[in-house]
């Protein structure tokens, strides 16, 4: 194949389109949640508690697709160009299969999930409608994230931004049409998201094959794809396991929050949505850094990787702290976007105050976990997720049994988990062990002519 090139080595040029893309997606999610709250606080509260179920696919599948970015980028950095296209093809195959499987399971179990989590019959009926409809979304997501990974590995984050902004306009316009004009209610909001995902998938496929001119092949494809499967699974399983563990943890904790009532459920959902934009900033820095760090790791440029790591960690912590503090200081108007219920607003203000203490730590965990996997140190983040993400659940259960927790108590437990894990992630990077864990080695330089 022709030698693929990284568009730029500027972190700013890679990251600002990703940030605008993430911000656009966050804006769409907020608009969707506004429509849910416009329909009723009960609908918004129910969707908020069922979101960890949706996150199981919405986080795990894109995280696995991130393995395609890391693997292809390291091969490009090491100048092993014959392995790049097979990595793309294997990524599409794996994530498309994951999307179809998750969609099938979600549709099959839609009427049972809310009941298993403890939702009362009226709220479970809302949940059944939501889950059965949103299942179709994942059919498109599985293909979309793999094609976006191709664009990311080439540094074409500007194209991702334009796609996201186009799709956002489609999504918001259709949501307003379906809910405010056609009065389709909950199904209308979700249907707009599905059509948006389908549109994004079509655009991504066209960009990869039409504009970037990436050509997949059939002859010898099986053997070539199997040749990149092992490193892809090594990074992909770790990439996917952490969000899988996190969402499973959130499902378990949601079953304990549901008995606190609709006010607590709604306050938690609204406060979490208010934090989205600072999380998007950290995610954007992580994704932009992953692209550069994977290329530089393949080329053995470890000093550049280390300097970039500490630069993005400092920036992410500062922005996270400043944003969380601002959201708390202006909590009443922020929460007032979703609800006018004074009890829900008071609870939400308390939760936003707690978030000030741990959002900088969450930024470290977003950056730290992502880049460790990108440079090949995939096992350590997976072990930490097992120990902490799964370990906090029995601790919270024990505390809740001894001293019944309010919604604020649950958030304090979340804060402790994030802060401890942030310290461990920083320590791991400082050890430098990641320098010996890359999946590719640079090819030796060709001998000079006539030598």
Chart the SSEs and their pairings.
Elements: H1 11-39, H2 41-77, H3 84-117, H4 121-134, H5 137-153, H6 157-181, H7 186-211, H8 221-257, H9 262-274, H10 276-298, H11 302-329, H12 331-336, H13 342-374, H14 379-390, H15 392-402, H16 407-431
Helix pairs in contact: 1-2, 1-6, 1-10, 2-3, 2-4, 2-5, 2-8, 2-9, 2-10, 3-4, 3-5, 3-8, 4-7, 5-7, 6-7, 8-14, 8-15, 9-13, 10-11, 10-13, 11-13, 13-16, 14-16
Q: Could you explain the architecture of this structure?
A:
The chain is an all-alpha fold and 451 residues long. It has one domain (11-436). Helix content is 82%, strand content 0%. The protein is built from 16 helices and no strands. The chain has helices spanning 11-39, 41-77, 84-117, 121-134, 137-153, 157-181, 186-211, 221-257, 262-274, 276-298, 302-329, 331-336, 342-374, 379-390, 392-402, 407-431. Helix 2 (41-77) packs parallel to helix 10 (276-298) and helix 13 (342-374) packs parallel to helix 16 (407-431). The longest helix has 37 residues, at 41-77. It starts with 10 loop residues before the first helix and ends in a 20-residue tail after the last helix. The model is unreliable at 445-451 (pLDDT under 50).
Number of helix segments? 16
User: How many structurally independent domains?
Assistant: 1
Radius of gyration: 22 Å
**DSSP strand tally:** 0
> Mind describing the biggest β-sheet?
none
What distinguishing features does this structure have?
mainly alpha; 451 residues; disordered C terminus; globular; 82% helix
């Amino acid at each position: 194949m022709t030698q693929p090139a990284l568009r730029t080595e500027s972190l700013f040029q890679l990251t600002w389109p990703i940030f605008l893309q993430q911000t656009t997606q966050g804006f769409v999610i907020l608009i969707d949640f506004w429509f849910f709250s416009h329909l009723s606080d009960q609908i918004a509260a129910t969707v908020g508690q069922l979101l960890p179920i949706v996150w199981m696919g919405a986080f795990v599948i894109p995280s696995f697709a991130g393995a395609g970015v890391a693997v292809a980028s390291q091969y490009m950095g090491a100048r092993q160009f014959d392995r790049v296209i097979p990595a793309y093809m294997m990524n599409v195959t794996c994530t498309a299969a994951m999307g179809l499987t998750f969609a099938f399971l979600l549709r099959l179990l839609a009427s049972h999930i809310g009941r298993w989590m403890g939702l009362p019959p009226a709220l479970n009926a809302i949940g059944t409608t939501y889950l059965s409809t949103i299942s179709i979304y994942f059919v498109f997501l599985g293909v979309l994230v793999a094609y976006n990974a191709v664009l990311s590995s080439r540094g074409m984050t500007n194209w991702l931004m334009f796609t996201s902004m186009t799709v956002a306009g489609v999504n918001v316009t259709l949501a307003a049409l379906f809910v405010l004009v056609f009065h389709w209610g909950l199904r209308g909001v979700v249907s707009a998201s599905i059509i948006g995902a389908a549109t994004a998938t079509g655009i991504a496929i066209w960009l990869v094959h039409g504009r970037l001119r990436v050509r997949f092949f059939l002859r010898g494809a099986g053997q070539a794809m199997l040749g990149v499967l092992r490193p892809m699974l090594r990074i992909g399983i770790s990439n996917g396991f952490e969000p899988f563990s996190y969402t499973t943890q959130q499902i378990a904790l949601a079953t304990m929050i549901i008995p606190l009532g609709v006010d607590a459920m709604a306050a938690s959902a609204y406060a979490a949505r208010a934090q989205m934009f600072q999380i998007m900033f950290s995610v954007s820095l992580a994704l932009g850094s992953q692209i550069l760090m994977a290329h530089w790791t393949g080329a053995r440029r470890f000093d550049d990787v280390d300097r970039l790591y500490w630069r993005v960690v400092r920036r992410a912590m500062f922005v996270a702290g400043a944003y969380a503090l601002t959201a708390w200081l202006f909590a009443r108007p922020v929460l007032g976007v979703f609800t006018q219920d004074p009890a829900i607003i008071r609870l939400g203000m308390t939760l936003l105050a707690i978030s000030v203490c741990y959002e900088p730590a969450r930024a470290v965990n977003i950056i730290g976990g992502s880049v460790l996997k990108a440079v090949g140190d995939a096992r350590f983040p997976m072990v930490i997720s097992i120990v902490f993400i799964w370990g906090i659940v029995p601790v919270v259960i024990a505390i809740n049994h001894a001293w019944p927790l309010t919604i604020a108590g649950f958030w304090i437990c979340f804060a402790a988990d994030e802060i401890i894990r942030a310290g461990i992630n920083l320590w791991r990077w400082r050890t430098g062990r990641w320098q010996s864990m890359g999946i590719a080695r640079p090819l030796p330089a060709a001998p000079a002519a006539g030598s």
